[in-house]
Amino acid sequence: MSNTRKLETQCVIAGGGPAGLMTGYLLARQGVNVIVAEKHADFLRDFRGDTVHPSTLELFHDLGLLDELLLRPHQKTQNVSLTIAGRDYKIAEFEKLPVRCKYVAMMPQWDFLDCLADAARKLSNFRLLQSTKVENLLQDNGRVVGVSASDKDGEIEIRAGLTIAADGRGSTLRGVSGLKVLDLGAPIDVFWMRLAREEGDSNESFGRVSSRGLLIQINRGDYWQCALPFPKGGAETIRAEGLPDFRQRISDISPTLEEAASAIQSWDQVKLLTVQVNRLQKWWREGLLCIGDAAHAMSPVGGVGINLAVQDAVAAARILGPAILDGDLSNSHLAAVQKRRFWPAKMTQKAQIAAHNRVLIPALNSTSQVKVPLAIKALNKFGFLRGLPARAIGLGLRPEHWRE
């Protein structure tokens, strides 16, 4: 006799990240019964991608949640700059964007997700199952009719009219869906680390480039969240060179971090992000829709992954909610979500790949004086041009809004 517990709902969502929680919240806000299954017990993990962009802050204003969100710890980045061979170059200025919050909020993602989850839990038709690992799709004559999952008490079947895969770039549901992934390639990987930030250091986040490489410094209050990109597959070579050389590399790129870098005493303090850039050619099949990183894994360039995931969620909830409530959800609705969000994802990935090839790789492969790209020179000669990267990073190509 099976001990599998059985649940039913109108929509089940795999993954309690930005895409999954936002979709669940917005569907439940419309009256749809939703279950979100999240494999972790809480959100207290080092995500590294902790940028909440002006477009997402504007959306929280639409939802009446902005004041509550901004009570959470965060730092404001109003400008992005790059220091190349000791000279500062301005890249993007968010102050002139036509939004309420003219900055990128650097906020731990657990605080962002907790705020969203707290709002969703107030809705009686929203249910968040934590410590619940989604393992497979339930199917009936080729149609997806829910998921199988497990928690500490055993197996669970969650049957639903719609299943949404929002379980990230390593999506379990995408892997078993039969949907085809187009791998666009990524020529870099990234080491992430935390380095102490001194009183009087710049409040802005910025990058530094030298013949030793590129280092991104993100202001997180009492520490810098630092990213060191390098050519893909080079992690073991860098580790083999030893920690003294690694610390020296950091201080060569950013001399002000020499003392902070000395605190790195173990490779356990340095986390590897294996960069992927890929997307599904088709985001859906009958009864199933993939969104966020499950549909399109992004490079960390621009820090736009979270915000694209949230935009996917808004479009999905806006298009699918009424159809679910009316009982006439069809493949055409799922296709409409992809049609709405495919172009922004594709063009953002195209821009990221261009940044890899034209800026990052030349900088990382240089062994002498780094040449300043023509585009960066233009941004500094003609100040009005800095509004273009600010809009591309801060708002995205097709920002979504919410109206009840």
What does this structure look like?
The chain is α+β, with helices and mostly antiparallel strands and 404 residues long. The chain folds into two domains: 5-184 and 276-394, FAD/NAD(P)-binding domain; 188-231 and 233-273, 2-Layer Sandwich (D-Amino Acid Oxidase, Chain A, domain 2). The protein is 35% helix and 28% strand. It has twelve helices and 21 strands. It has helices spanning 18-30, 54-62, 66-70, 109-121, 172-177, 235-241, 243-253, 258-261, 305-326, 331-365, 374-381, 387-394, and strands at 5-14, 34-37, 51-52, 75-77, 79-84, 87-93, 104-106, 126-129, 133-140, 143-151, 154-165, 181-183, 188-196, 205-210, 213-219, 223-231, 271-273, 278-280, 284-285, 288-290, 296-297. The strands form four sheets. Strands 1, 2, 8, 9, 10, 11, 19 and 20 form an eight-stranded mixed sheet that branches. Strands 6-5-14-15-16-13-17 form a seven-stranded mixed sheet. Helix 1 (18-30) runs parallel beside helix 4 (109-121), helix 1 runs parallel beside helix 9 (305-326) and helix 9 (305-326) runs antiparallel to helix 10 (331-365). The radius of gyration is 22 Å and the shape is globular. The model has no long low-confidence stretch (mean pLDDT 91).
Q: State the shape.
A: globular
How many runs of DSSP E, i.e. beta strands?
21
Euclidean distance between termini CA atoms:
46 Å
CATH top level label of the largest domain:
Alpha Beta
Please tally the helical runs, counting DSSP H or I stretches of 4 or more residues. Answer: 12
Helical percentage: 25-40%
Beta-strand content estimate? 25-35%
The Rg value, from CA coordinates, equals 22 Å
**Overall pLDDT score:** 91
- Find the structural class using helix and strand composition: alpha+beta
Q: Superfamily at the CATH H level of the largest domain?
A: FAD/NAD(P)-binding domain
What's the structural domain tally?
2
Main pleated-sheet profile? 8 strands, mixed
Q: What is the fold named in CATH at topology level of the largest domain?
A: FAD/NAD(P)-binding domain
Poorly predicted runs: none
Tell me which CATH architecture of the largest domain applies here. Answer: 3-Layer(bba) Sandwich
